[in-house]
Amino acid sequence: MIPAIQVASESACWKQILKHSQRSAQGLLERLALDGSSVDFDPTFAVRVPEPFIERMRIGDLKDPLLLQVLPQLVERDTVEGFTNDALNEMAAVRTPGVLQKYHGRALLMVASTCAVNCRYCFRRHFPYQAHGPATHTAALQALEADTSIEEVILSGGDPLIADDARIADILTRLDDIAHIKRIRIHSRLPIVIPQRITEGLLNILAGLQSQTVVVVHVNHAQELDGSTHAAFKQLKQANTTLLNQAVLLKHINDAVATQKDLAEALFEQGVLPYYLHMLDQVAGAHHFDVAEIDAQKLMAELHAQLPGYLVPRLVREIPEQSGKTPVFWTTQQQDLNTQSCDARWLRGV
Ligand SMILES: *Cc1c(COP(=O)(O)O)cnc(C)c1O
Ligand code: SF4
After folding, report:
1. Closest atom, ligand 2, to C-alpha of 187
2. 288 within 8 A of 76, measured Cβ to Cβ
3. Ligand 1 pocket, 185 CB below 6 A?
4. From the centroid of its chain, how far is CA 90?
5. Given a cut of 70, is residue 3 above it in pLDDT?
6. Neighbours of 1 (CB within 10 A)
């Protein structure tokens, strides 16, 4: 066991890193020895990138797959038909302030309103957190306790691990005490962008839970993984959590077969299973990341041919008013849709 004093200094460490995140596009470019003539300075969705993530970017490469995820571009200002401010109609899913429910048995608890990194493709970039985010958790937790149909609570945000250990401990232990909640899931990009966030304090809280716990991280490219993420994942596993990854399919970042294959293998080497590969949400300002569905389907067929089945993520799209993420089906290239398996046709309802 580690003495309490050391826990305090560890937690101060990740907060310091967060506080010193790069907050300007200019600063980020200078840090990478790049010139900024094609870059925008969008004031509504500010630049925010922590140093450990910047350290994994290549110096002098404007096409670096990590840089492209966080660097504002002038092209974001274009208006493109079909790309809107509330692409997922999330406002309609707000139950109690701080609780979002769209799917049966699973509810999202919005623990924090900000993230440690601002991803340019994010579907939440226009979400009015101030009005619908977490004011108090008491009402939200009471709502979850009152609804016995909820079996799984997903801590979300923003990024829930932005909250400090005391707050996380309070929420997790209160959820753990609710009899009908079997599983607690945490969706966070913090183990990637600031692996120091996985403190001894957090690990102790997780290890003490009765509920099954799942941590879904968010890695889009193998270059985001290094020794520090590996160490964080190992500790999370030792605290009895199941580790899954979700990624977003992003043009020029991870839409090549080799890139997705590397990602799946690198994740598995670090003890994480690929879960979802999301089609981009049609959010205003993110159209330049969009990959056509037909290209995504070809990519999946290739991945399926090259990887063991358990390393192939499920390609999904989020469509408002659906009862879950919507699978995007694909078929191996030798076949056409008429000859695909009975299972797939049944799933598509034809
Ligand atoms: C994605 C999402 C979930 C989780 O869906 P799974 O398919 O179980 O991973 C739950 N609630 C909301 C609102 C979501 O957007
Ligand atoms: S919610 Fe996820 S994708 Fe969006 S900015 Fe935060 S970390 Fe990035």
Report:
1. 2
2. yes
3. no
4. 16
5. no
6. 6
pTM above 0.85, yes or no: yes
pLDDT in tens, 252-292: 999 999 999 999 999 999 999 999 999 999 999 999 999 99
- The token duo for 156 is 């979300």
CB of 21 within 8 A of CB of 48?
yes
Please enumerate in sequence order all residues whose Cβ is within 8 A of that of 32, keeping only pairs 6 or more positions apart, or say none: 54, 57, 58, 59, 60, 61, 64, 67
Ligand nearest to the CA of 325: 1
Helix H or strand E encompassing 127: none
Of residues 13 and 89, more confidence is placed in: 13
Ligand 1 centroid to Cα of residue 136, in Å, is: 22
> Of the residues 68, 88, 114, 117, which should be mutated to test ligand 2's pocket, given the most ligand atoms within 8 Å of the CB?
117
pLDDT surpassing 50 at residue 140: yes
Distance from the alpha carbon of residue 346 to the mean position of ligand 2, in angstroms: 34
- The confidence score (pLDDT) of residue 307 equals 98
Distance CA 305, CA 265 (A): 14
User: Would the pLDDT of 341 be above 70?
Assistant: no
**Token pair of 20 as six digits:** 């010193």
Cβ–ligand 1 distance for 106 under 6 Å, the answer yes
Nearest in space to 312 (alpha carbons), one of 321, 320, 302: 302
Distance 146 CA to ligand 1 centre (A): 20
Stated length of the chain: 350
Reduced DSSP (H G I as helix, E B as strand, rest coil) percent helix, strand, coil of the chain, to 5: 40, 15, 45
The residue whose CB lies within 8 Å of the most ligand 1 atoms, and thus the one to mutate among 88, 96, 100, 102, is 102
Does the CB atom of residue 109 touch ligand 1 within 6 A? no
Axis-axis angle for helices 200-207, 227-238 (nearest 10): 30
